[in-house]
Structure formats: structure tokens, C-alpha cells
Amino acid sequence: MSRLKVLIIDGAVRQESQTRILVKIVSKELMKKELDVSVLYQNDPLPLYDQNKTTINSPKIQNFLANYINADIIVLSSPEYHNGMSGALKNALDWLTEISNDKKSKFKLFGLMGGGGAFANSGALTQMTMSVRSIHGWIMPEVFLGVPNIWNAFNNDKTEFIEKTQEDRMISFINKLIYYGQFFRDSKNKLQAA
Ligand SMILES: Cc1cc2nc3c(=O)[nH]c(=O)nc-3n(C[C@H](O)[C@H](O)[C@H](O)COP(=O)(O)O)c2cc1C
Predict the structure, then answer these.
(1) CA–CA separation, 77 vs 85, rounded Å?
(2) How many Cα atoms are found within 13 Å in the side-chain-facing hemisphere of 103?
(3) Of 17, 44, 121, 178, which is most buried by a Cβ count within 10 Å?
(4) Each residue's pLDDT tens digit, 110-126
């Protein structure tokens, strides 16, 4: 059986982004578990969704859409911005409308993560959940990871969580992502074979 493929869509844009640190830590853990991981970083963001043929055909958008189709699991990561997801992440999701009728864009498991202030990224998690429904993605219980007070969550090297409870939550998130990701890939294969 080939490795599970994960695409992480990083909604962070700021140079000193804290949620990008989370993306890097989670990516490393997923690679340790032998998953193929690719990340759409938005420090060079996707163009704004405009449904313009020239933009759609640009290498940046075509690569993104191809990576999306190729992945078994999609992880959305967003900072909490004004009780919602970042504009960069929403823009990336809007581009997926271009492949919404493609059979290969179905049966993807989504994991949701990110961070913010005292309430982590609860607003962004809610918005991401609604958007995933709209793009026909699948979300399973507890496959989300919200990091409260994210500015104080990581060690000085920005390579791991300070608190063990946070580390444990991340490991649980990753294990569920893999368990359900495998289930979804098997179901997709059975459906396509039928
Ligand atoms: C535009 C903006 C809006 C924000 N709104 C909220 C908010 O509604 N709730 C919250 O807890 N934190 C809020 N924050 C704090 C961020 O969630 C926090 O700084 C987090 O580190 C941002 O992620 P980033 O470092 O990846 O950009 C906001 C920050 C910015 C820049």
C-alpha cells in the first residue's frame, strides 16, 4: 500500500507567524509516521480568486489544484483573525471551486488546526468546518487541533510544544488523521472499483 498523501494548506501570511510554527511541527510529526507531506505556504500567497482563465491557468493555481487532487488528506491551518479564518486560507478554499466537479476531489478527509488567543482558533475552526462541507470534504469527530495562547505555546527553538498536554493533543490529532485517512482512502478505492 502506498503512503498516505497529506496536503497542508497553511493560512498564515505574517513573517513571524505562530501558526506556521505549528504547521512545521505537525509536518515533521507526519513525516516521522511515513506520510508524504506537502505544504502550501502562503508567504507568497495565491492570487485572489477571480475566475479569470489566465489566473486559473497560472502554474501557481494549477500546482495547487493538482496537489489537492493528489492528496488523500487535507489539513487546513488558520490563525484566529477576528473570530474567523485568515483571508489567505479562505482565498485558497475559494479556488477549489474550479475542481468541485472533479471525481478525484471527492472523499478527502480534512483535519483542522491553528491557534490564537485564550479561545485558540474556535471561530476559524467553525468557519473552516462550514467551508469544508461546502467543498464536499469530510470531517470526523476530534480531528481538529486548536492551540490557545499560541504565542506562549512553543519552546525557544520553536521546534516543540512547551506543555505535554499540548504535545499529547497534537499526537492524538495526528493518529486520528492517519486512522480516518486510511479509512477514507480505502472507501474511495472500493467505490472507484465498483
Ligand atoms: C488581524 C488580527 C485579528 C486577530 N483576531 C483575533 C481574535 O479574534 N481572537 C483571538 O483570540 N486572537 C486574535 N488575533 C491574535 C492572533 O490569533 C494571534 O496573534 C496568532 O498568533 C495569529 O496567528 P499568526 O501568528 O500565524 O499570524 C488576531 C490577530 C490579528 C493580526
Answers:
(1) 9
(2) 4
(3) 121
(4) 999 999 999 999 999 99
- What DSSP line would sit under 22-56, residue for residue? HHHHHHHHHHHTT-EEEEE--SSPPPPP---HHHH
- Round to whole Å and give the CA distance between 188 and 180: 12
pLDDT at 194 over 70: no
Q: Among the residues of 78-163, which ranges form H helices?
A: 87-95, 122-134
Q: Which helix (H) or strand (E) segment is 64 a member of?
A: helix 59-70
Q: Which residue puts its alpha carbon closest to atom 29 of ligand 1?
A: 81
Separation between Cα atoms, residue 158 and residue 40, nearest integer Å: 20
Pairing mode of beta strands 109-115, 73-79: parallel
Output the nine-digit C-alpha cell for 143: 480531528
Q: Residue 80: which of 113, 121, 21, 19 has the closest Cα?
A: 121
Mean residue pLDDT of the chain comes to: 95
Nearest residue by C-alpha to atom 8 in ligand 1 = 82
| Ordered structural domains, the chain, with CATH | 5-193 (3.40.50.360)
Give the angle 47-125-68 at the CA atoms, nearest 5°.
45
**Ligand 1 lined by 117 (C-beta under 6 Å):** yes
pTM over 0.90: yes
180: left (phi over 0), alpha (psi -120 to 50) or beta: alpha
